Amino acid sequence: MKKHEDEMRADYKRADLGKLERGKFFKAAAKGTTVVLLDPKLAKAFPTSEAVNAVLRGLLTLTEQTASITGRAGVRAPRRRAA
Fold this sequence. Notes:
Layout: H1 26-30, H2 40-45, H3 49-70
């Protein structure tokens, strides 16, 4: 078993890491922010989070509109058997 070393390897320099900040993303994560990974082709089409959010809001609106047109609320009533 390797002995635990508290020192960084010689090829890593602390100055290369930049300023470290504890809890940097805590506030955003606490608000319920969700991080997702996009397919590279999708990332080219939607380069910002605002673009992704706009498209998803549009899809949500569209599904709500089409649900009211078809008269379905998303749940089917069970079929009755013929007597």
